[in-house]
Every structure is written in structure tokens, then in C-alpha cells.
From TrEMBL:
<comment type="similarity">
    <text>Belongs to the polycystin family.</text>
</comment>
<dbReference type="InterPro" id="IPR051223">
    <property type="entry name" value="Polycystin"/>
</dbReference>
<dbReference type="GO" id="GO:0016020">
    <property type="term" value="C:membrane"/>
</dbReference>
<keyword id="KW-0472">Membrane</keyword>
<feature type="transmembrane region" description="Helical">
    <location>
        <begin position="146"/>
        <end position="163"/>
    </location>
</feature>
<dbReference type="GO" id="GO:0005509">
    <property type="term" value="F:calcium ion binding"/>
</dbReference>
<feature type="disulfide bond">
    <location>
        <begin position="247"/>
        <end position="269"/>
    </location>
</feature>
<feature type="transmembrane region" description="Helical">
    <location>
        <begin position="446"/>
        <end position="469"/>
    </location>
</feature>
<feature type="compositionally biased region" description="Low complexity">
    <location>
        <begin position="65"/>
        <end position="75"/>
    </location>
</feature>
<feature type="region of interest" description="Disordered">
    <location>
        <begin position="1"/>
        <end position="117"/>
    </location>
</feature>
<keyword id="KW-0812">Transmembrane</keyword>
<feature type="transmembrane region" description="Helical">
    <location>
        <begin position="606"/>
        <end position="628"/>
    </location>
</feature>
<feature type="compositionally biased region" description="Pro residues">
    <location>
        <begin position="674"/>
        <end position="691"/>
    </location>
</feature>
<protein>
    <recommendedName>
        <fullName>Polycystin cation channel PKD1/PKD2 domain-containing protein</fullName>
    </recommendedName>
</protein>
<feature type="compositionally biased region" description="Low complexity">
    <location>
        <begin position="97"/>
        <end position="106"/>
    </location>
</feature>
<feature type="transmembrane region" description="Helical">
    <location>
        <begin position="403"/>
        <end position="425"/>
    </location>
</feature>
<keyword id="KW-0325">Glycoprotein</keyword>
Length: 691
């Protein structure tokens, strides 16, 4: 080899080595195109972190092709040529470290990582899914909501179920009801057939006295009903009286002559009870509180007195009555003393034309069931004359959380409250974030409603427990008291029955609301999604139909009320008429037509059959047509891809349950699928070209 060629080769080798060292010290830049086609726009939006320029974490991307770089200047020119400008790259961030270049070089087709998608972030996410502080981290948000709400429903259901009375309580109530209501006098008068004051006194002296003060159960004594129902503090009979008022002055003369006229005040009328601040066209309250009856020992026999502070107003179908009045207390353990009290009150006319209502309160305790049985009887002597009787029997547990099942009820109610508290705290956070817009959040309003109803139940239970705890025994006082004495220590427990009814009503509303709310959590299910869509679309057609139905139904109900209201029990009020007609169009009360026909043989078939044809045949069929039409529109939602069924939680759960019984559910079959259309016929071959 010539000497010149050898030197040239040596200079070329030295220049390539020099260029390699320069590239090691420099930072190699990669644009989107140099990293790979997978970078795209995603890699340009997220700048990589800066890396220290050191020889340990940098590399030289030199390609030795054999020709190499003949001089250092050529190598540096090549480095400069590989650095594109910002305008040419089209990316916001241009300079990266060599280590990032190597990581992207290993997966050239992977997109640029966003913050939180790195190796460390993914590892931390995997660990946090199974953390003790976050045991449900492996669930997606929707599944987590369904899980918590399922626990919410389970705890509520078990707590309510354990707090319900057993069938034994039902038979206790029914037996006591038949014992009291079916007892007859010598004239075959029962409580339900009491029509006037004389028959009322006969029933008190006869069946009531025999039932309460009988010892027909061997081993029992006075004051024990059915052997195990021990009377608490006797029986209280209370009446509400009204003040007679002057009748209207514009009466016809022939009508006024029918009254027993008074020279001083004129004819007297006895209106309905207007107690307290209740007003009417005749003025304010007309409740009588003045003493009446014969004068014994310088004062009237019967004195008005206030009832116990726990006593509640009595609400009947005809009116509402205050808790105070004129009392007649019968002792529980002395039949002779009780009979003397009854004779004295009957002798001095305890009930007369000014009596508006008489109420009998009887509370018994069954130690075997740890249960209070509250009996309330009402005899209303309304302004139309005569007596209308009614009765009510209720059972109340003496201790709410008693025994093993009581502890179970307390435990599950506590778990229910904890889950509810979790929901409330979440909604408080949403309220602080949304402020006034929180009022439009349905989930928040629902949780606040449930929380308010639960607080109401707790308040009712606490009030009832306080009333029971304040009860005192007054048996000895009743033994020595006079026949006209009113026992001021008497504890009226009637309101405990009202509290129990209100609690049951609230729990009934909670049961319906909580379970219906669960359907909204299942709205994302592919099985139920088309049903929600169908109902949502049908709503715009159902609402006008519902308005049309209400117009027709109210018109017929008003007609029934006008024609049959004064004569048929089921149509005695407009609200009762609506209930009766609703049952009629649903298929019930078919035997009612005979009674309607006897009252009015012309209007009965006209109204009855016209309502049946219009409401049932026409309107209900229109409603079904709307649903069928909307279902046909959403039929394509039923013909879903089989893969959607495999992802559906309802189908997979069903298949898992059926697998225990040896039944295999093929989830890949389509539901309501239609066969694919036949393939088009093959085309005819083109004609040969003309010669």
C-alpha cells in the first residue's frame, strides 16, 4: 500500500474515533418520526423528564458502515443534521434524553406514556387495588356502587324482618278482637250493633263486664283476659261533649215548630265538635267543659279533666276529637267496685244528647310474648243522631331489642346506619362542592330523604320507650277511690299505638323507595338497558293517555258518588268512591252490582257497564298498544351481539347459579335473533366480447 494511502486510512480511523467520542458526550434528540410511527401526537403532548447528561445513561447511535466518517467535522455535521428544528418537527417538545430514546427504541410502536402511566405508577396502582385501606380497589366505580348499595339493602331488609311480630301476635289480636266484639247482651246486641245510648249502657253492663271481670280460664283471676292478658291500670271510658247552640234564624215556620222551643234562647242545635281553635261558620270551638249531672256534696258529679300529657287526639272517619273530656275509670281487679261505678254514672246520666263521642281504652300485657295489646273502642254520636261504632286493636313490644333476634335486629340496624352514614358523608362532600346545584342531584336528595325518615323512626321509638318507662301502677289507688274519682296518675298508652302505626308506615315507604332505587344502579346492564329505553320513550305517549284516563275516571266516579253516595256504603264519600271504582275496573267488587241495582235500577247498569267498557275495553287496550308499539321500536336492542351477553353481569350470575344444578346456559346464543338474510344470487358472467 502506498504511504499516502496508509496515512489517509489512519486519519480516517482517528476521525471516526473522534466522532464517536463526540456523540457520546452529546445529547441525541429524537422527534416523533425518529422514535417510531407509534408516537404520533400523543408523544408530542407529554414532554419526557430531563435526564442528567452523563456517559453512564447516554449512548451513541453511530452506524459503522465501513465507510465511516472521514473527519471530525463531517461527524459533527451529521449530528447537526440529525437535529430538526421546532418548525420542522411539529412537536412542542423536541429535546429528550438518550435514556428515553433507548426505552422508546425497545418498543418503537408504543404510544407516548401519559403522567401516571409509567412503570412505577402502574405497580403502585396494582398494589393499591389490594390494599387493606381500600379493599374494593379491584372493582370499577359502577360495580363498587352496586356492591355498597346491595349491602345497604341487605342490612335494611334483615333489620326490618327481625323487628316484625310473628304470626303468634296476629292470632293474639284476632282472638282478643273476637272476644270483645262478638260478645252479646241478652238482646243479642254486640259492639258493632250498638245504635243508641240505651244499647250502649246494656253493652257496658253486659258483654264488657263479663269479658273483663270473668274468671272462665282455670287458674286466672279478675283482670286477666284470655288467661294471660293482664289489664294495666284499669279501663278508662271518656266522653267529649258539646255546647248547644241557637239554630239558624231563617228556618221556615213549619220547621221551627218541630223543635222544643225555649223562651229564652229559642231552638237548640247540636253541631259537630269544634275543639280549640277549630272554627266554622258558627264561630270558634264548641266543646263543653262545664260540670254537669246531679249535685252531690255541693258540686256536680261529673267534672271535666285533662287527660295524660302523652294522650293523643282520636281520629275517626267522621271527625277528630281532643284527648281531654269527662272520665269514667273502672278498676281492673275489683268487679264489685267496677259495677258500682257503672251504676252511678248511668243513674246520673253520664251520656246524653250533648255527648258527641265516647271512647274506651283498654291496655293488656302478655308476659309470655312481652307484648302490649292496645284496645280502642269508639262510639260516635254525630250530629245526624244515633251511634256509629268502630274499633282498633294494636300490639306493641315492650322492649324493641329483646332476646337473640332483638340483638340481631340491633346489629343489622347498626350496620345499615353505618352504610347510610357513608352515603350521607359522600353527599355532604358533593353539597360543599356543588352548593346550590346540589338541589338538582337526585342521588343526594334520595339519601337525604332516607336519612330523614330513619331519624323519624328513631324519634318515634325513643318517644314510645319514654312513655312506657313513665308508666306507674295505680291499682291500690283504684281500690280505695270513690266511684266518681278521676285518677290523675293514669298513664294513657294510646299514643304508643299511634307511634307504632307511624313507624310501620315510614318503614313501608322506606322499603319501597330503597328497593326501587336499586333499579337505577342496574341501568347500565345490557339486559335492562333496552327496558329503560322503552319505558323512557313510552313515557311521552303514556302521559297524555294518563291525563285522558283521569278525566274519564273522575267523571264516572263523580256520577257514582252523586247517585249512590247516600245509599251504598262503598260510595259514602268521594275518596271511597274512587277506591271502589278502581277495584271495580281491576276486576273486584263484582258482587256490588246487585246492591247498586236495588238502589237505582236505571242508573246502575248505565254507569256500571259504561265504565267497564270505556275504562277496561278501550283505555286499557290503548295503553297496551302504546307499550307494544314502543317495544317494537326497541326490538333491535334485544338483538344484541353475543359478546355483550358474555359481559352482562345478570347473565353471568344466572349461569353461575344454574351451574350448581347441572344446567348449562349457553350465553353465546342470541336473544330474539332473526336469521341472517340469504346471500344474493351470483351474478351472471359478462357476455363475451364481440369478435
Amino acid at each position: 500500500m502506498p504511504i499516502g494511502a496508509a496515512k489517509s486510512s489512519q486519519r480516517s480511523m482517528m476521525s471516526s474515533l473522534s466522532g464517536g467520542q463526540t456523540s457520546q458526550r452529546s445529547v441525541v434528540s429524537f422527534t416523533d418520526e425518529s422514535v417510531g410511527s407509534g408516537g404520533g401526537k400523543g408523544s408530542s403532548k407529554h414532554p419526557p423528564k430531563a435526564v442528567e447528561k452523563s456517559a453512564a445513561n447516554t449512548t451513541a447511535r453511530t452506524v459503522d458502515t465501513g465507510r465511516g466518517s472521514s473527519s471530525p467535522s463531517r461527524g459533527s455535521d451529521q449530528d447537526r443534521s440529525e437535529k430538526p428544528s421546532k418548525k420542522d418537527s411539529g412537536s412542542k417538545y423536541e429535546t429528550t434524553s438518550a435514556s428515553n430514546a433507548l426505552s422508546s427504541e425497545g418498543s418503537s410502536e408504543k404510544k407516548g406514556l401519559k403522567p401516571g402511566e409509567g412503570l412505577y405508577a402502574r405497580k403502585k396502582a396494582r398494589v393499591s387495588k389490594f390494599s387493606i385501606m381500600n379493599p374494593l380497589g379491584f372493582m370499577d366505580p359502577q360495580t363498587k356502587k352496586i356492591f355498597w348499595y346491595t349491602l345497604f339493602i341487605v342490612f335494611f331488609s334483615i333489620g326490618v324482618f327481625n323487628g316484625r311480630p310473628s304470626s303468634t301476635t296476629f292470632f293474639m289480636l284476632r282472638t282478643m278482637q273476637e272476644k270483645i266484639l262478638t260478645a252479646k247482651t241478652a238482646n243479642d246486641v254486640t259492639w258493632e250493633t250498638v245504635l243508641d245510648i240505651d244499647s250502649l249502657w246494656d253493652w257496658i253492663r253486659g258483654p264488657l263486664f263479663d269479658v273483663v271481670y270473668s274468671d272462665n280460664t282455670p287458674g286466672s283471676k279478675e283482670g286477666a283476659l284470655l288467661g294471660y292478658g293482664y289489664i294495666i291500670n284499669g279501663i278508662r271510658i271518656r266522653q267529649v261533649r258539646i255546647v248547644p247552640e241557637v239554630c239558624r234564624p231563617d228556618l221556615p215556620e213549619w220547621a221551627a215548630q218541630a223543635f222544643d222551643l225555649s223562651e229564652e234562647h229559642g231552638a237548640k242545635c247540636f253541631d259537630a265538635v269544634r275543639a280549640g281553635a277549630i272554627t266554622s261558620i258558627r264561630g270558634t270551638g264548641n266543646e263543653d267543659r262545664e260540670p254537669f249531672g246531679a249535685i252531690v256534696g255541693g258540686e256536680r258529679v261529673f267534672q271535666w279533666s285533662e287527660n295524660d300529657a302523652w294522650a293523643a287526639w282520636t281520629l275517626t272517619e267522621l271527625a277528630s276529637y281532643p284527648p281531654d273530656g269527662y272520665m269514667m275509670d273502672l278498676p281492673a281487679f275489683n268487679a264489685t267496685k267496677a259495677l258500682d261505678v257503672i251504676n252511678l254514672h248511668q243513674k246520673h246520666g253520664f251520656f246524653d244528647v250533648q255527648t258527641r263521642a265516647a271512647f274506651l281504652s283498654l291496655v293488656t300485657y302478655n308476659p309470655n310474648l312481652n307484648m302490649l295489646l292496645i284496645t280502642r273502642l269508639a262510639a260516635e254520636m254525630s250530629e245526624f243522631g244515633g251511634i256509629v261504632t268502630s274499633s282498633s286493636f294494636q300490639s306493641v313490644p315492650l322492649f324493641v331489642y329483646d332476646g337473640f333476634w332483638g340483638v340481631m335486629q340491633l346489629a343489622f340496624e347498626a350496620l345499615f346506619l353505618l352504610v347510610l352514614l357513608k352515603f350521607v358523608l359522600e353527599e355532604v362532600g358533593w353539597a360543599l362542592h356543588l352548593r346550590a346545584r346540589f338541589l338538582y342531584r337526585f342521588q343526594g336528595m334520595f339519601i337525604l330523604l332516607v336519612f330523614s325518615l330513619v331519624c323519624a323512626v328513631a324519634l318515634l321509638r325513643a318517644t314510645g320507650a319514654a312513655a312506657i318507662a313513665g308508666q306507674t301502677f295505680i291499682g291500690e289507688e283504684q281500690r280505695t277511690a270513690s266511684s266518681t274519682a278521676v285518677h290523675t296518675k293514669f298513664k294513657d298508652l294510646d299514643n304508643i299505638g299511634y307511634f307504632r302505626v307511624m313507624e310501620d308506615n315510614i318503614l313501608g315507604v322506606l322499603s319501597v323507595v330503597i328497593y326501587l332505587r336499586f333499579f337505577l344502579h342496574l341501568a347500565n346492564s345490557t339486559v335492562l338497558k333496552h327496558i329503560y329505553g322503552m319505558l323512557r320513550s313510552a313515557l311521552f305517549e303514556i302521559l297524555p293517555f294518563f291525563v285522558l284516563f283521569i278525566i274519564v275516571f273522575l267523571g264516572f266516579s263523580l256520577g257514582f258518588y252523586v247517585v249512590f253516595g247516600p245509599y251504598v256504603k262503598e260510595y259514602r264519600s268521594f275518596m271511597r268512591t274512587i277506591v271502589t271504582n278502581t277495584r271495580m275496573i281491576m276486576g273486584g267488587n263484582s258482587e256490588l252490582y246487585e246492591e247498586l241495582y236495588l238502589v237505582n235500577w236505571i242508573m246502575a247498569p248505565l254507569l256500571y257497564y259504561t265504565l267497564a267498557v270505556t275504562a277496561f275495553v278501550l283505555l286499557f287496550n290503548v295503553f297496551l298498544a302504546i307499550i307494544v308499539h314502543t317495544y317494537a321500536v326497541y326490538k333491535n336492542e334485544l338483538e344484541r351481539d353475543p359478546e355483550d351477553r358474555l359481559k352482562d353481569g345478570i347473565y353471568t350470575t344466572m349461569a353461575w347459579i344454574l351451574s350448581f344444578f347441572g344446567i348449562k346456559l349457553n350465553l353465546t346464543n342470541r336473544v330474539h335473533s332473526t336469521p341472517p338474510p340469504p346471500p344474493p344470487p351470483p351474478r351472471a358472467p359478462p357476455p363475451p366480447p364481440p369478435p
